Fold each of these.
Amino acid sequence: MKTITKITTTVCIGAILLFSSCKEDPISPEKGYSDGIFVVCEGNFNSNDGAISFIDDTTVIKDVYNKVNGLPLGDIVQSMTIIDNKAYIVVNNSQKIEVVDVTTFKSVGTITKLSFPRYVVKFSANEIAVSNGDGFENNYVYIINTKTLAKTDSIAVGAGPNKMLTYNNNLFVANMGGWSNDKTISVINMQTKTVSRTIEVGDLPADMELDNANNIIVMCYGLTTYDQNWTPTIVSNSQLQKINTSDFSVTTIKQFDHQVANFSSNGLAYANGTIYYLDDAVYAISGANANPTKVIDGVYYGIDCNPKTNDIWVTYTGAASSHKVIQYSPSGTKQKEYVTGFYPNAVVF
Amino acid sequence: MKQKFYCISIGLVCLCVYAFGQIHDTVRLDSVAVCRNGEYFWGGAKREVFDNSVLQSYASASLQTLLQQNSLFILKSYGNGLSSGVSLRGAGSSQTQISWEGFSLNSITMGDMDISLVPLLSFSSITIDHSGFATNYGSGTFGGVVELVSEPIKQKHTSASVQYTQGSFGTRKYASVLSFGNQRFQSKSTLLYAKSNNNFPYYDYIRKIHTQRVNSEYQGFSVTQTLFAQWNQYFQTKVGVWYTARTCNIPPIMGSTPYFVENQQDTSFKSFVSNQLIYKKFQITVKSAYISDAQLYTKETKQYAKMLQQSSIESNRLVHTLKIRRYLSSCITGDAEVQYSINSANVSNYKQVQTEYTKAGMLALQYKKSRLQSNISVRKEYNSKYSIPLLYTAGIQYDIVPSKILLRANGGKKFRTPTFNDLYWEQWGNPHLLPERGHTWEIGSQQTWKHTQKMWLVTDVAYYEGYITNRILWIPQGAQWHPMNVAQATIQVLELRAKTGTTIHNVTVSSNMGLDYNNSHIAKINSSLQTDEAIGHRLYYVPKYALFLQPAIQYKSWNAGVHLLYNSKRYYSIGNTMNQYAVLNAHIEYSLTNKKITSVYSVSAQNITNTVYESVRSYPLPGRYLECKIQFLIN
C-alpha cells in the first residue's frame, strides 16, 4: 500500500512539473510601451473584445490593456488620447474611460458615470474634456479633473457630440447627431466654460482636423433618414468644409454628389498641407486645388497620418479577413501591414 | 505517442487473452442480475453514480445544480435559469453526451444539451461515465457521457412527494412526484415548475460599478411520465415521455449598455418505448425514441420595442435500435446492436430543411469473472454525409487486492460529427467540415483503505489522455466567425478523488474531495488560420487546477454540509483569461417522520462569500443566494 502511495504521489508531482511551462515577455520593463504606436480597436458590438493593439518594429500585441491589467477593456473602444504621459481610453458601450500610464499601460483609474462617451481632449493643466451623448439625451461636454477623475462641469452642446479640437482658447465640438442627427459645431470658451457660439455646417459633422493655416477642416457625412420599414431616403450628400477660426465663417471645399463610403468618426486626416479622406478609396486634396486625387485603392474604416513621417495609416475591417492596419508612404506606396484586434478605427502616434 | 497507445492496446489484449483462458464450462446467468437491462458493457471505465438517495435532496433542482455541487465538471452557465452546458475532462460540451435511456439528447443543431432543463426528480439515478466508449454511444463522447436513468421500483409501493422552494431574487420552485406500482406495473409522474425575477446585484468589473442585472426573468416547467410493465416472465415494456417548456429573457452582458431586450423560448418533447424479451440465454431489446426540440429567439430595441431580430430552430430526431444480448457462458456475454436514426432541422438561418441519416452496427464482448472484468467492442457507422471510421474500444478492470485495490484501463477510437449549425448556418456555416476523430486512453485505480460501518476511506486516481484531430473551432475572420477543422487538440487530465467518513455514536462526519490537474491544449493548428501562439495554448474554459471539498455532518435527523469549489484561471481566447475563483456553499436540513409522512426542512446558502465570478465570459453569476425548502414525502 505504501509503495502505491509513493508511486501515486510521484506520478502526480511529475505530471504537474512536466506539463508546466512559461513564456518570456517580449516587452522590456525599461522601455515599456513608449516606443511604438497604438491602434484603437472597437471590437464587436456586445462582445467585450474592444482593445488597444500595440505595434513596434518587432512586436504586435493585440490587446495590451488585457495583457498588462488582466482584464478586458470593454465593449466598443471608441478612442484613445495621450495627455501628459497618461492615455485616456474611451470605452463607449461600457460607459467609461480607462486611464492608464502610457509607458507601463497599467490602469491608474477609471472615469465612470458617463452614458455615451466618445472623445477626450486636454482642456487645461488639470482638466480634460469628454464629449458624451447619444443624440437623444445627456448631450454634454464634461469637464473632468485629472487628479480626482471626477466631473467638475457639464456643458450642454448639440446632439451626439463627437470629435473635439482646441484652438486659440476655444474648444470646437462636432455634433455628429449620435443616434439622432445634427449639423452644428459648438464652440466652447475654455475660460468661461460656456458655449460661445454654434456654427452651422453640413449634416452629420463627423471628423475635424486643424490645417497649417489654423483653419478647421470638417468632414460632414450627409444625412439619410429611414421610415418604419427601414427604407432609406438620402436627404443630403457629404461635404468637406473649412471653418475660419478667426471669423468662424464656413466655406465648402468639396460638395460631393454622393455620401462618402465611410461611417466611422475617423474618415479624415491632415498632414503636410494635404487633406486625406476616405470614400471608395483614399483621396487627397492639396493646396488650393479642390479636385481630389486617388492615392490608395480600397475601402477603409479609419485614417491617420504620422505627424513625424507623414506616412498614411489606414485601418481595414473587411468582413471576411483579418482586421489590420496598413502603413503607406505619403505618395501611397504600401510599406507594412499589421493584424490587430477587431475593428481598428484609429492609430495613435 | 502512437507507440505508447499500441503498447497499452497490446497489454489490454494480452490481459483479455489471459482472461479468456479462465472460462468455465458451466453456463450461469449472473450477468443478468449485475447488468442493468440494456446497459452497455463498461468494464475499465471510470463511472460515478448519483443514486436516489443523493437525488432526493435535489428534488426541485436541475442537473446543473447536482453537477456543480458534487464533483468537478466544467460548467458553462449563463446564470440562474439560463442555459448551461457541461463538459468533462477538458472536452467541449458538444463533446460530452447527455444520454436518456441510451438515446443522445445533445442538440443536433448546436451539439450540446442545456442541462438547466433537466429536472433531477424525474430520474432514479444519474451516472457519469467519464470514459464514454464511442462504440456504445456513438458521436460526441470525447469528454464522456452523462446518463439519465429511470429504473422502475419493482415492488408494491405508493409514494408521493411535494416540495416548495423559495429563494433569493424572487425565485419560487414547485415540485411533485407520484410513484406507484407493484411487481408487474409501475408508474412515476413528476412535475416541476420554476419562476424567478433573477435580477440580482453584481459588481461589473469592466464598467467598474456595482449594478443590478435587468431583464433576466425566467419561468419554466417540466413534466415526465414513466411507465413500466412486466407482461410475463419473459417480456417487459418501458415507456417514457418528457415535456419541457421555458421562457427566459436574456440579460445584457457585463460591460455593455442594455439597449436591447432579448428573449428565448425553448420547448422540448422527448419520448421512448423500450420492449425487452428475456428468454433463456437471450435478451432482445427493441427501442425507439422521438425527440423534438424548438427554440424561438427574439431581439427588440428597448426604447421602441421594435423587433430587430427573430430566429427559430426546430429539430427532430427519430431513433430505432435493436439489441441482442447472448449469455455465452457464465463469464462471457456478447452484444450485437443495430441502430437507425433520422435527424432533421428546420432553422430560419438555414437555407432549407436539413436531414441526416445514420445507420450503425455494434458488436461487443464482455468477460466477467470474480476479480476481472473486461470487454472489447467495435462499431461501424454509416452517415449520409460523412465517412466514419471503424470504432473500437477495449477496457479491463481487475481487483488486484480483493476489495482493496482495483486497477482499470481502457482505450478506444472516438469521433464527433459537425452540428447542423456548423454546417448550414447561412453565410457563417461551413458545409465542407469533416468529423472530428481521435482516440483516448485511460488508466486508473481505486483504493479502499478502510470500509466498515464506522469508518471508511476510499481514494481514486485516474489519468486520461485523448487526441482529437480535425477539431472544429469557430474562428474569427474579420467580423464573421466560421467553423473550421483547424486543430489537433490533446486532452490530458489527472484526477484524484477521496471519500472518507466516520460514525461515532449518533454523529456521522464525512467528506468528499477531488482535485483535477488538466493540461488539455491545442497541439497542432492550420497555420493559415492562426498564428503560432495558439500551439500549446490551453483549451478554452478549461481550468488547469480544479478542487472541490464537501464535508458534511449528520446527527439523528439533522444534516449539514459545506461545499467548496475552486477553479483556477480559464482562457476564453488566445492569451486572455477569466480570473480564478473559489465558491463556498452550505446547507442544513432537518427531517421529521410522523407515521407515513416525512417532512424535510432545509436552508441553503450559495456563494456565501459573495465571490465575483463567471463560468461564461461576461455573464455575471449571482452573489449570495439563499434558499428555503420544505418537502413532504408520503409513503
Amino acid sequence: MASMTVIEAVRSTLDEALGKDDRVFVLGEDVEAGGVFRATEGLAAKHPGRIIDSPLAESSIIGISIGAAHYGMRPVAEIQFADFIHAGFDQLCSEASRWCYRTRGDAYLPMVVRTPWGGGVHGGQHHSQSIEAYYAHMPGIKVVAPAFPADYRSLLRAAIEDPNPVLFLEHKRTYRLIRQEVEGAPAETVIGRARVTRKGPDLTIIAYGLMLHESLAAAETLSSEGIEPTVVDLLTLNPIDRETILETAKATGKVLIVHEDTLTGGLGGEIAAIIAEHAFEYLDAPIRRVAGPDIPPMPFHHAMEDFFMPNREKIAAAARELAAY
Amino acid sequence: MTTETTSPAGTSLGAEQLGKFLYEMMLIRHFEEKCGELYTKGKIRGFLHLYTGQEACAVGSMAALEERDKVVTHYRDHGHALARGLDPNRVMAELFGKATGVSGGRGGSMHLYDVSKGFLGGYAIVAAHLPLAVGLGMASNMKSEGYVTLCVFGDGSVGEGEFHEALNLSVLWNTPTIFFCENNLYGMGVPFHASLSTEIPKLAAAYNMPAVSVDGMDVIAVHEATNKAVDHARSGKGPYFIEAMTYRYRGHSMSDPELYRLKDEVEEHRQRDAIERLKTQMMEAGQLDEARYQEFAERVDQVVDESVEFAERSPQPGIETLYDHLYKEPSDG
C-alpha cells in the first residue's frame, strides 16, 4: 500500500500507460519540463520523444490529437488550465464528438484531453473555472471528474484505453490536498458509473470533484447531529449514471445536488430533471441545489472567493433544511 | 516563395494519363451539374456547394497521391471525393441522404467520407481540419508509415487562427502535409484581397514552408506542383504549400444570388476553363480526337445517370438506427 496524492495518481497512471502502450503520447504546453502542476514530471526522460511540448495553441492541441488518434495513436492531450480549453471547443464538440457517429463506427478517436479545473486556489477569473457543463452537454464525448486518487488511477487508465474521446477533469485544489492509500495497478473500471460513497436513509447528496470531499465532510457533521445522508460520487458526468441517481433518490426521497459550477445551466439542473421525470412519486421534498452563484468569474478576493465556493457548511445547512422538510 | 508557370508543352505526362485527367474532370463537371439540377427538383436538400470550374485542382492533386495517403478537405468536397476514387453511386446516394451513401446519409454533401480510400472528409467548419492534417502527419512520423496527407482548403481559411497554428506546427514538427489552397477568389461573397493583407503563399513562407502559386485551371500545372510537394513531404523534408488560382462558376451555394460579381467576370474565367484547355491541348498534340472525346462524354453520362438511379432506388436509413454508433464499444477498440 502506498499513500498517494491526486497529482501522483495522475502521474503514475500516465507513466504506466506510456510504458505499456507505445501508441500513447502526451501533448501539451510545458509538459516536457513537467507541466504547471508537475503532472508529467520525470516522464520525458523516461519516455523520450513521447512527451511533446506544444506552442500555446489549444485548438490545435485538440485538433492534432484527433488526427493522430484517427490513425492508430493514443494521444493524451493536456490543456494547462480548463479555462483555456474553450479555444478548442469546436475541435472537441463539433469534430471529435461525432467521428464515430458520422462514420458509423468506421472511424473512432481513442483520445484523452486532461485538464485541471475548479476554484479555491485564488486563481481568479481565468484559472478557477468549472467548464464541465459545456462539454457534458455534448453527446459523443465522455466527461470524467473523479475525486479520490484511486479513482483518478482507474478512470485515467480507462480513459486512455477507451476508443472514444474522453475529457478528463482534474480538480486542481485536490491535486496535493487529497491523499489516499492506493494498492497495486489501477483497478479495472467502466466509465459511466457513479459510486455510493456513504449510505444513509435521510437524504441523498450528489456531488463530484472537490465538492464530493466537502459533501463527505458535511456528512460527518450531519451524522453527529443524527442526520444520516447517502453521498454519491458521480465520477462520470457524461454519460451520466441515471440508474444510481434514481436508485439513491428513490431510497431517501430527498436530494441535494452540489457543484461548484454556477447554478443556472449547471449539471445539477439535468440531474434534478432526471429525478423529477423518473422518480417524482418517491420525492418527499423539493430537490435542492447548492452551487456557485450566477456570477461570470470566480472573484480573486479571498472572502469573495469563499462566498462563491460551496463548502461543507453550506452543504450541511442545506441538508439540515432538507432533512427537516 | 516562387511563382511557377508550367508550360503544357513541357509536360512528360503521356496521353493515357492526360486522358484520365480529362475524363475525371468531365465526370466531376457533369456530376456537379446534375446535382444542381437535382437540387432544384428537390431530390437533394440542404446546403449544396458546387465545384464546377475548380475540377483541375482535385484531379491534378489527387493523382499525385498513393493509395496509403490521406485526404482531408473542405465542404465543397464532391470533386475531391470523385477524384480520390470514391464510388460515384455512393457519393450520390449520400447527397440523397440514403442508407447506401458513404456515410449512410448521416453526412450529406459537406461531410463525405470513406476510410477505405483514406478520404477523411468533408469539413464544414472552415480551417478546423488543418490541425487534424498535422495530427495525421504526426501519426505517420511516429509510426514510420510514410503516408502523406493532402489537406485541401479554400482562401477563406487563411483568416482563421487554426490555419496559422497548423502551418507553424507542421513546420516545427516536420509533418508530411501538403497544404493545398484552392483560391477561388471569394470567401462566399467577399473577395480574398478584402480579407487578407498580404498574399497567401507569403503566409506559408513566413512559417518557413516552401510555397508555390500555380494556375489552378491547368490540371498539368496542378499535378506537377503536387507531385513535387508529395516528393518533398514523403522524403522527410516536411510540409509544402500550394496555392492554386481557380474560380467557381456557380455561386457559393445554391442559394447565392451572386450580387458580388458580374456575369462578365464569370465569362472571363470560363475562357480559362480547365476541361476545354486540356481538350484543346490534347487535340493539338494528336493525343485526342473527337470520337474519343465523345466516348468520354458518353461514359460520364452513363456513370452519372447510374449514380442517380442507384441513389433513387436505395433505401432510406432506418430511423431506428438513430442512436447507433454514438460511441465505439471499448471491446472494439
Amino acid sequence: MRNKPRLRSPKERAKDFHEVSMGYSPEQAKEEASRCIQCKKPQCVTGCPVNIDIPAFIKLIVSGDPKGALNKIKEKNNLPAVCGRVCPQEDQCEKMCILGKKGEPIAIGYLERFASDYGTPSPTLPLAKGERERSDRGGKVAVVGAGPAGLTCAADLAKAGYNVTLFESLHGPGGVLSYGIPEFRLPKKIVNNEVEYIRSLGVDIQYNMMVGGIFTIKELFAKGYKAIFLGSGAGLPKFMRIPGENLNGVYSANEFLTRINLMKAYLFPDYMTPVRIGKNVAVIGGGNVAMDSARSALRLGADKVTIVYRRSKEEMPARIEEAENALEEGIEFRFLTSPTRIIGDEKGWVKSMECQKMELGEKDESGRRSFIPLQGSEYIMDVDTVIMAIGQSPNPLIGNSSPELSREKWGGVIADPETGQTSIPGVFAGGDIVTGAATVISAMGAGKKAAEAIGRYLGQSMKDEV
Amino acid sequence: MNKILLKRSLAPQVGLIELEATDISKKALAGQFVVLRIDQHGERIPLTIADSNPSKGTITIVFQKIGASTRLLDNLKQGDSILDLLGPLGRPAHIENVGTVVCIGGGVGIAEIYPVAKAYRKAGNRVISVLGARNKDLIIFADEIALGSDECHIATDDGSLGRKGLVSDVLMDIMAREKVSLVSAVGPTIMMKVISDITKTSNIKTYVSLNPIMLDATGMCGVCRVTIDGKVKFACVDGPEFDGHEVDFAELMSRQKLYLDEEKKAVERHCSSENPDCRCKT
C-alpha cells in the first residue's frame, strides 16, 4: 500500500496560508521507498522530463541517506523541493511505475520532496567561499526570466562553467513559483532556498530588469553576451471577452494570485498591497490556477467559492490531488457551465453572473470532449467577485521589441523542441513562452535541453573564432 | 537599491525625487513611467518619468501625497535608497511634427506633460503649454515649461495665478484664435475627459495619458485594462497614452475607485498620528 502523506485537516488549513501537506515523516519515507523493486530498466526515468535517476535516489532513502538522495536528484534537477511539490507525477514518472500496473505506484513525488526537505543543509549558512566565483571560461550568457525554465537553464550553464546573468523583470525570483502558486502549496521559503542554491553556483540574478524594455536582444549581444536564453513565460492573462468583464470585482487569476502571493496582500495592511474579496466568489476555469485561486479566496474569508467549468469533472486539467483538496476544503464545483455575461450594480461592481449550461460532444483535437452550449439554459448566479482562470498567453514584450524573433500567430516563440534554437542565431527559448501555459517540470526540461544546446553552440562558435 | 540624490517639495502635497538610475536614464523617452517599491512591505507604485539625465545617470519623478505609499515615499530623504526600481515602462508618447501642439497639464500632471512638451518642441512643433491647478501653490514646473514652450498659459480655480478658470477654458480660447493640430493632455481623468470632449467636436487629434490602477505594470495582471474604441487594452503595455476620443472614461473612473476603502485603512495603519506604529512622521 502506498503511504499517505500527512495533510492538515481541511477545517484548519482552509483558514490560513500555511502549507497543506506536511509530506512524509522519515519513517514513512523509508517505508514507501522500500516498496521500490529497483527495476533493471526503470520506466519511471523515461517519464521524467529531466531524467532523474529515480531508483538510485530512492535506494539512498532506504539506506537512511536523504542528503545523498538529494545530491543524486540534483545531478539532473536544480529545483527538487519545488518539483516534489508541484509536478504532476501522476502523468509522468508515477504513471510509468511498474507497480502501478497492479497496485499503486511508488510516491516518487513525495519521496523527492522528502529528500529535499530532509537533505538540505540549513539555508541560512553563508555560502562557502569560492562557490560564488564566476567562471569566465565559456563566455557570458544572458538568461531572461527567473522562473522554472530560466533558473534551470542558468544553473546548468553555471555548472558547465559559463558566466551567467539572469535578468528578471519582477522584484523577486521564481516567476510563476512566486507570483502564481500559493504559499499553502509551495512555501516561498522553499523557492528562496532553491534560488539561493542556484546563486551559489555563481549565477548573478538581476531583478527589475525587463528585457525588451531596458535592453533588447540586440543590445544584450552588444553588451558581450554570447548567447541568450528566453524563458519569460506565459504571463499575459486571457479574458473571455464577455460583457461586464471590466466591472469592479472581476480579476484575472494572475492579478488575484499576484496580489496574494508576490505582494502578500493576505497580510494587508501590514503589507501595503490590498486585495478585495467578496462573500460569494466564482472562479472560471478548471486548471490548477483555478484551484489555487478558489482556495486562496476561501482563505481570505469568502463565504462561498464556486468553480465554474464548462466541461465535466473528467476533463478538468487540474491535478486530481488539488481538486480533491479543494473539494475537502469546501469549494463547490459547477460543471458543464460557462458564464455569458457579468452583471453590475449602479456603482460598477459585480452583482451577478449569467451562465449557460453545456453538454458534452465528441472528442476534439485536444483529445477532450467538446462542449455544446444548451440554448435557452441561461440562468443567473449571485456573485460579487469573479476570477478568470482560463489561461495565459506568452508574454509579448520581448518579441515586440525584436521583430526578427519568429512567433506563432497565438504569440508563442518558435523554437526547436530539441534545442530551443529560435529564428535568431544564438537566441534560445523554452518553457511557457514557447509552449503556452504548461507545467513547471516541462519548462525545466526545456531549460535543461537549451543549456546543453547553448553549450554546444558556444563550443562551436569558439572553435570558429580560433 | 536606488539612491535618492535629490529630494524637494514642489508644493504642499507634491514632492520631487531625483533617483540614481543609470540604465533607465539612457532609455527613458517622454511619456514612459517607472514602478518603484520603497521597502519589503511596499506596493509597486507606478510613476511617470518627469525628466531623465543620461549623463548623470538619473531620473526625476514627481508625486502627489495621496495614499499611504506616497506619504512614505515623501518621508525619504536625500541619501536614502528605495528597494526596487523598474523601467522604463509603457510605450513612449507619439511625437511627430504636425504644426501647433497644445500641451495641457493639470495638477501633478504638469510634471508629466513637461517631457512631452519638450519632445514636441524638439520635433519642430510650435508648442503652446497650458498648466492648471486649484491654486498658485500647486502650479509646478512653470518656469521650466515656459522656457521649453512657444507660449505658456496658466489657469487656477481660484485665480491666484494666471487666469481664473479651467485649462479647458484656455484651450477653447486658443482653438477660437488659431488652428491647433494636436492636443496632448495629462492630469486628472475628468480633466482629460473634458478636454477630449471639446477637441472631438473640432476633430483635433488628442492624446491623453491614462493612470488606472496598476500592479506588475508589465502586462501580466490586467488590472489596468481600459476600453479603447470598444477594445480592451492594458494601459501598462499598450499605453499609457491613448487617443482621447476613443477612451471609455466612465469605466476608467469607476475602476480607479476599486481600492478607496483599503487606501483609507492603509493610511490609518501606516500614517496616523494616533497609531504608535506609524511609519511616517507627518
Amino acid sequence: MKALMRALRAMPAMLRVGFAEMVAYRAELVIWILTALTPIIMLLVWDGVAANGPVGGYDRAAFARYFTAGLFVRQLTSSWVVWELNESIRTGTLSPALLKPIHPLAFRAAENVVVLPFRLVVMMPIAVALWLWRPEMGMFIEARALPLCLLSIALAWAMNFLAQTVFGALAFFAEQSLGLFNVWFSLWALLSGYLFPLELLPSWARTIVWYLPFRSMLAVPTEIAAGQLGGAEALLEVGVQAIWVVLFFFAARAMWRAGVRRYEAFGA
Amino acid sequence: MTASNDPVVVVDRLSKVYRVPRKDPGLRGSIGSLFRRRYQEVRAVDGVSLEIRPGERVGFLGPNGAGKTTTLKMLSGLLVPTDGSIEVAGHRPWLREPEFLSQITLVMGQKMQLIWDLPPRETFELNRALFDLDAAECKRTLEELVELLELGPLLDRPVRNLSLGERMKCELAAALLHRPSLLFLDEPTIGLDVRMQVAVRQFIAQWNKQSGATVLLTSHYMADIAALTPRVVVISSGRIVYDGSLETLVDKLAPERRVVVMPLRPLSQEELTAAAPFVLEEGRLVVTVVVQEVKRVVDRALRELPVQDLAIEEPPLEDVIAQLFSSEAEA
C-alpha cells in the first residue's frame, strides 16, 4: 500500500518525463503506430469478401464498424514493455532502475500510458478517411456505452501490459525469450479478433476461444465500441476481463520476483 | 545523522556463484548446446568477510574478474548472494527496501542511468520523484552539485550530445541527488582524461568530507586509490588477500627503494667499476636496495661519488600491485 502511494505521488513527474521522451522519439513512435494498422488491411479484405452479401451476419457496414473500432482499441491497448524489459535485462541497463525505491515497471507503465493521447491524434485522420469511404458505418458508439467501453479498454491495456511483463521477465531465465513472445503474439493475432470478428468462427472454436484470454485483450472492447455487445452480456465480459487482469497481475509478479533473484546485472 | 561508530557494512563469509552456460566452439558446439545445455559454476566471490565504519573510504583492488564488482553489486542489492550474510545500513540489501535504497547509491562507470535522448535535467527530475524528495531541498542539492561538478552548461543539452566525461559528471549528480550516506562507485573515472579524473576524484573526496558519506570504490587507476582511499581491500580470485592501510601494503610488498645519483661529470670506466653496486642507466647511477640499506648506500655515495643530485624513489604503485597479483597467481 505504501509502495502504491509512493508510485502515485511520483506519477505526475513520471508522466511528464515520459512525455518528454515521447516528444524526443516522435518519429519512431509514428512508425510504431503505423505498424499496428493491420485492421485497415483486414477491413479491405473482408470488405471485398462481403461485396456479394453479408458473411456470418456481417455486411460491409458492420465490417467497417468492427475494424474501425478494432483499430482504435488496438492503438489504445498497445505497449512495448516486452522489448524494453528484454533489452534492459540482457544488457544490464535494468540495474539503475532496480535501485530506485519505486518499482521499475511503474515508470514503464507511465511511459506506455502517456503516448495514448498521441496515438488517438494520429488515428483521427485515418478514422475520418475510413468514414468517408464507408459512411454507412455511422456514428456507432452510443454515449451511454462509452464509460463501459473505456473501462474495457483500460482492462485490455492492463492485460497487454502484464502479459508483456511476463514475457519480458522471461529474459531473466532464457536468452531467447522474445521468440516465446512471438508465439504468444501470433496466437493473440489469430484468437483476439484482430484479423477477423470471432463470431465468424464455428461454434466449437468459439467455445475454445471463450476460455482463452486473447478475446478479453481486444475483441471485448472492440465489440462494445462497435455497438455489437451491450447490456448484461457486456458487463459479464468486462467482469471476465477484470478476472484476467488479476490473474495476469499475479503471474507477472511471480515471474518478476523469481526473475530478479536470478538477475546477474551484466555489463560493467 | 547519529555519531554512532557501529559498522555500516557487515559482510560475513559472502559468496556468489554464477551458473554460466558452456558451449563448445563452432557449429557442432552450437547444435550440441541446443539439445543439452551444460553449465559451469563460476565462484566469483568466495567467502569474503569485511566490516566498514561510517565515513570510511575504502578502495577495492584486484585484477579483472577478481570479484570486486560482484561484491559491490551484492552490497548495493543488485545481486542475491549465494552464501554468507550481508548487512548494509541495517538492511539486507537484496530485499531492496525503499528505506535501504534511499540511503545508498551505486555508480557504474559505463552503465548509465541518464535518459539518453533527454537533457540530464529530466533524469534529475525523475529521480526527485522516484526518491520522493522535497522539491526545495532537492533544488538546493542540485545547485550544490552543479557548482561542485561545474554542470551549469550541461543541464539542458541532450545526454547523447555530452562527452564521456560530461556524462560521468552528470551521472554522479544523478546518483547523489538523494544524498545517500553510502556510495558504491565502480570505476568512477574509467575512460576519463586525466584532468577529468582529477576533477571527479576531488569531487568524491570533497563530498565525503562534507556529507560524511561512506565511500567504497573499485578502480583500475592507482591514482584513484592513492588519492581517495586510505584503506584498501585487495581481492583476488574472489577472496580477500589484503585488508588494511595503503601505506602498510606498499611497505609490505615493496620494501625496496631506488637510489638515483646524478653525477657532476661523466665517470671513467674505473670510477664506474668502483661505484658498484651502482650501475649506469641513461647517464645516472642507480641502485635498488631494501629500505634498511638506504642510509648506508646514500652515505657512501655522498662520500665517494661526484654527486650533483640524489633521489630516493619508491616503486610506482602500479608495479607494487602487479607484483602482488602475480605472486598471488603463482601461489
